[in-house]
Amino acid sequence: MVTRTDFNQYMMPTYKPAEFIPSKAKGSLLWDKENKKYIDFASGIAVSSLGHCHPTLNKALADQSKKIWHLSNLLTNEPALRLAKIFCKHTFAEKVFFANSGAEAVEGAIKTARKYAYLNHSKRKNEIVSFSDAFHGRTMMAIALNGSDRFIEGFGPMPEGIKHHPFNDENKLEKAITKKTAAVILELVQGEAGIIKAKRGFVQKIKRLCKQNKALLIIDEVQSGAGRTGTLFAYEQFDVKPDILCCAKGIGGGIPIGAILTSSQIAECMQLGSHGSTFGGNPLACAVAEQVMMMLSKKSLLNGVKKKEKLFLKELKDINKEFKCFSAIRSSGLWIGCKLNVSENFNLDTMMKACYAKGLMILKANNNTIRIAPSLIIEDDLILKGLEILRQAIQEQIR
């Protein structure tokens, strides 16, 4: 029998998990070892896009487990090929590379962009431009792209050739994106920063400067993709087409998988042996992701995301009207950030503990924002019940 103290004894202390240990989950509900029930507004940090243990995904995993679990990439497999076709059908992409995570997808995208610039332009065209408050993962390249001291302290030296520019600031952008730029990497919605959308003018200027300087535009949709913002991918809402797109998290519905999407022209630079992944394109992962992407591609589901967003916003605004607890409520589909009016007794830590105690799972963003990222098909009655728990937790904290 395992207990919460086993975490401190056996696990590297890179996380500080909640005191309870989950034992089972279904849909948007979860139960701990004491059979206490929780409403899940976190979905594994925007991963369980169709909730826990969805019957269609259970069946896909069970069926594939009786066929083939793993093959090296010396061979291909049917689930990977079917999934690649779905991506190409529903996006700008013509070619796909499968990885295991968002950070791996970002790493592969940077390699692809630099190799493309090397082969098609100049050996010295290798700079990558990223933006303040970004989050692209936890690998060495990813934390260098993030550009935040809290991610890089103690891990240097960082990979070279990276420039940082203030997010949503058009001023002096042309000094950042130059003839030496191989690629610009951009989140259209910054999740870790508190659900901050890119301004349309900012995105359009990046688009123009990339074209002018023959630089590739990499869109990181690890969190904003897979229907999270109300379209299959967020780029559809910004009048921009990526040269390379990184996705992961919600595309697997809880199974680890990442992908790089790009054009045939750009993919051509990545020839035999230039990149690889032992588990990328795993048949089990791809069989599940195939079903996820088929479901997320349906207009009815994506329209439902937008309707549920409106319900969340209405109720959250009512809570804020009652308690004056949020200085901002920001959203992009079912990805919502509530910036707290922080006080000594009312902050993220106290709110997380209060919500857990009452049976609600929420997330943090930045150091002052409650982040809500539920299943994309969470039932309306659970939304209302969860928000009532949130209201009660706030009432207790600020009374």
What is the residue-mean pLDDT, rounded to a whole number? 96
Strand order of the largest sheet: 4-12-11-10-7-5-6
CATH architecture of the largest domain: 3-Layer(aba) Sandwich
Determine the CATH topology of the largest domain.
Answer: Aspartate Aminotransferase, domain 2
Number of folding domains?
2
* Uncertain regions spanning at least 5 consecutive residues: none
CATH fourth-tier homologous superfamily of the largest domain: Type I PLP-dependent aspartate aminotransferase-like (Major domain)
What is the CA-atom radius of gyration, in angstroms?
21 Å
Globular, elongated, flat, extended or rod-shaped: what is the shape?
globular
Secondary-structure class:
alpha/beta
Alpha-carbon distance between the termini?
40 Å
> Briefly, what CATH class of the largest domain?
Alpha Beta
Q: How many beta strands in the DSSP annotation?
A: 17
> How much helix, percentage-wise, in residues?
25-40%
Describe the overall structure.
With 399 residues, the chain is of the alpha/beta class. It folds into two domains: 149 residues, Aspartate Aminotransferase, domain 1 (Alpha-Beta Complex), CATH 3.90.1150.10; 242 residues, Aspartate Aminotransferase, domain 2, CATH 3.40.640.10. The protein has 14 helices and 17 strands. The chain has a seven-stranded mixed beta sheet, sandwiched between helices. Strands 1-2-3-15 form a four-stranded mixed beta sheet. A hairpin with a 4-residue loop joins strand 2 and strand 3. The longest helix has 25 residues. The radius of gyration is 21 Å and the shape is globular.
